[in-house]
Amino acid sequence: MIFTDTHTHLYSEEFESDQAEMMQRAMENGVQKLFVPSIDSSYTEKMYDLKNKYPENVHLMMGLHPCYVKPETYLDELAFVERELEKHKFAAIGEIGVDMYWDKSTLAIQQEAFQKQIQLAKKHKLPINIHCRDAFDEVFEVLEKEKGDDLFGIFHCFSGNLEQAQKAISYNLKLGIGGVVTFKNGKVDQFINQIPLEHIVLETDSPYLAPAPYRGKRNESAYVVLVAEKLASIYGLSLAEIATQTNKNAQVVFGV
Question: Which residues of the chain have pLDDT under 70?
């Protein structure tokens, strides 16, 4: 059985001591495609090193994470993103979006950076990978301005309600479902089966948000199978059916 992890920070410092072993565990669990988001320019070389080590399995995104949108550096960072897009092939623009949990004061420039990167995605005919924390209205405000046939991608780590899920889908976005669906208080498990499976992709967001029974510990891409098992239970389908459909959905988004 083959699985796709559509969002994993494989270059994280938390994997420095055992990255090769972690990757081996993922592949032994059938996780063959791993999509790696960008945060800012400081991680780019680590991303390229990963791609060189695992050229058939690792697929890179390019973008500026909203938590790294700072008044003194964001324009330079956006220029860096634009240059890299001209030089290298990427699977998506991400992760981009709005985060109102850590710093509300940068909302205006976060939305500006988000919109500019959506426009870059359209220019390069690439999907987007959206980060949204405590910011559904703020993210939807930008998406409403940019909606169209050339806007598509993944709403990463979806943790909203049914109405927000349906709205995200209306913008031609798949929902990235990870460890939160296994949490007792995650709430996503209460309605996700009302969303057709064709709109769902799997992710871990490792090393963050490990699924039960590893909640609170380091997450890794091998655990995407636990997310798939939970979805199989919720949808009343076999694990193979979840794997097949979510792989297909990821392929539709990334073209890989």
Answer: none
Answer for the pair 90, 117: CB distance below 8 angstroms, yes or no: no
Q: Give the C-alpha separation, 143 to 224, whole Å.
A: 28
Handedness of CA 75, 111, 51, 45 (dihedral sign): positive
- Residue 103's identity, in one-letter code, is D
- ∠ CA 238-24-20, nearest 5°, is 145
Q: Which residues pair with 202 in a beta bridge?
A: 177
Question: In angstroms, rounded to a whole number, what is the distance separating the alpha carbons of residues 183 and 87?
Answer: 41
Q: CA-CA distance, 189 to 180, in Å (whole number)?
A: 8
pLDDT at 186: 85
Three-class DSSP category at 117: helix
Residue 32 exposed, middle or buried by CB count within 10 Å (0-12, 13-18, 19+): middle
DSSP string of 84-113?
Answer: HHHHS--SEEEEEEEETTT-GGGHHHHHHH
Say if CB 70 and CB 89 are below 8 A apart. Answer: no
Is 246 in contact with 228 (CB distance < 8 Å)? yes
